[in-house]
Amino acid sequence: MADDHAVVRHGLKQILTDAFKRAIYGEARNAQEALDLVWKHDWDVVVLDITMPGRSGLDVLHEIKKSKPGLPVLVLSMHPENQFAVRVLKSGASGYMTKESAPNELVGAVKKVLAGGRYVSNALAENLAASLSATQRSPQEKLSDREFQVLRLIASGKTATDIARELSLSVKTISTYRLRILEKMNMKNNAELMHYAIQHRLVE
Fold it and tell me: Which domains does the chain have, with CATH numbers?
């Protein structure tokens, strides 16, 4: 279970312990701890938050899918399904659910991905079906995962230097990403990006 809030990890463990009485749990507070646990042990499933300190949950998901493609990852996030779910499912996640979901829904989702299935809520399934016939994509869907990550960091108020340090990239590379994001989303400046991200609940 990877989440930067101890109370969330404790709550998840309590919910799942009732259904999986003999299970062994590992807990991670950030991306690096999560990856260390994944590499050192053979887990049956990873329950992963998207927003953690340092590298994002999307980065963790990509790393897991490269090193252990068969390991199911259930993403549990505070962000709305319509903003993140399609992106994480395309990146290889076995399911997506919000932290507002009911406890029994979490248990059902874990059981489904353990059995090799994919979990999406009924509401998300309807949205996905509707999106197949939609001709207009939302601006953020045009972004690559890295561009999407940079967008969220810009929207959280971080400078290019801060972002470069956090992602271990050069400031010039971050500036290039920023220009691509503005172009793809047809926006002019950081203020417009921040307004969009806040309006669509892409940042806390």
Answer: 6-133 (3.40.50.2300), 139-199 (1.10.10.10)
